[in-house]
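Q: How do we represent a protein-ligand complex in a form that can be generated token by token?
A: Start from the inputs.
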Amino acid sequence: MCGIVGAVAKGNIVPTLLEGLRRLEYRGYDSAGIALNNGALHRLRTTGRVAELSKLADDQKFSGEAGIAHTRWATHGAPSERNAHPHISGEVAVVHNGIIENHEALRQRLQNEGFTFTSDTDTEVIAHLITINLKETPDLFEAVCRSVAELQGAYAIAVMEEARPERIVVCRNGAPLLLGLGEYGTYAASDASALLQVTRRMVYLEEGDVAEIHRDGYRIVNCLPGGVAREVARTVQESELTNEAVEMGPYAHFMQKEIFEQPGVVANTLEMVLNAHSISPRLFGNEAENIFKDTRSILILACGTSYHAGLVARYWLETVTGLPCNVEIASEYRYRNPAIAPHTLVVGISQSGETADTLAALSYAKSLGHRHSLGICNVAESALVRQTDLRFLTRAGPEIGVASTKAFTTQLAALMLLTMTLAKLNGRSSDKSEREMITAMRHLPVALQHALQVEPQVKAWAERFSEKKHALFLGRGMHYPIALEGALKLKEISYIHAEAYAAGELKHGPLALVDKDMPVVAIAPNDALLEKLKSNLQEVRARGGELYVFADADSRIQESEGVHVIRLAEHAGLLSPILHTIPLQLLAYHVALQKGTDVDKPRNLAKSVTVE
Ligand code: GLU
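Then emit the structure tokens for the protein with glutamic acid bound:
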């Protein structure tokens, strides 16, 4: 789930590996390690930051032309030095992202065969398996192929063998991995950003690919379980990522940068529409028109923040298109027996396009007989994009902060485009309503800029939140998912326990929690539900609860004792949830700053959740 970097090159590769790990730090990790192969394996590991690993490497004058490095996000075994990667068995060193599900059975077997384990990880079984297979075949590539055939789960690995320092073998199966082709060597990494310092020429591996890299080249064999191993050619792609996109610039945190990038990236995501007078289904792919015309219902599968985007979209889709829409948490859907509605468009949403549960839920939906799928994703080369019939790429640029911000608002922009496209093809929108929505979308970047201007007021509120242990978020209608997202942001980065409720649910339970120590954040746009919401807020006030209300300029709601109000612009209609997201992101950010937490790398969390 975290980071892999490998290199075989002319000259010392240690700075490349460490810089690669530094660029992957944003994904969240708890320990780091590096191994070099100079004809003998040398390893360094630490539970500290990558900077500490770099210091250790400096102190020990670590240098070599082939090596693998890793940041670990522990799934099996505590975050400790002995569990940090690389893991070594005999002459073999391995780094691994993901989970080996059958590790217990393998560990038992390997122990019976005399192997001693030095860690509690699932990873170590891979190293020992390769050692066994190397006794049967002298070829590391073949030994890796035989070993991975025994593994169940999702993983990306990189392997070195002491006797053959000129090469590294890597494999992708359910977790991202790519090769980088540089001037002085060949590289491998779990994320392109780790390699931009040495090359932009990338080869994205596909599921089941095993590759061998050496200084002047590489070869790839696809060994999908049950399939016939065959050498494959994968296209070399020029990465469009810029170095600036993965640098912080003048900001204090990536999250702050990403919050403030939203007007620009939402504009980029909508660009094709903003310059047109009408919306074309081709935005979603060449087949989209036929598939959308055949669509009778929609099923959205996603996790975390992307799931919240799906919940907003349900309001839009059902209101505007009249098509029934179901939104499911991917990790739940994949393990239940859902009833199948024919002619359903299955929509998977994932920032990275590598979210294991979302990918598995989509495959499961397909196996149940759903014929058409659409991926909404921020990464062009991801598994989600390859797996779906139709796709829409949000243009948020790399999102480095673990807590998602700009990915969410660009997903919402994409989902609004989907709503309008389906409405048009189903005869549910007129030319006039289409033009009006395009005009509203044109205004959206400016409206987002305006929403960001409430930052000083939000900052003042944040000071009062930092002492609190709990917070309640309330919203109604299409702003209820925004309340869910606001609560998620606050808990993710400030560690304050936050819960969101549909405001009408308050008296069915959560009202019991309300007292003067429980701040209640309410999203109060000037929509048809405002009067109902005001009654809910009265219920809070009557119990001594302190209210923090994000209203529209035209919401009829007044400041009074215990009722604090920050106003955005006038009500933005269907686009309002996108705007109301901004102050909630700012609130979470400033509360976290007050509390001094690690905003970009919150404890226990990781970016792009490629494990189940
Ligand atoms: N499951 C492995 C471990 O716990 C790898 C975790 C990762 O992806 O970083 O060590």
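Residues 527 and 573 are 8 Å apart (CA to CA). Residues 1-2, 72-77, 83, 96-99, 121-123 surround glutamic acid (CB under 6 Å).
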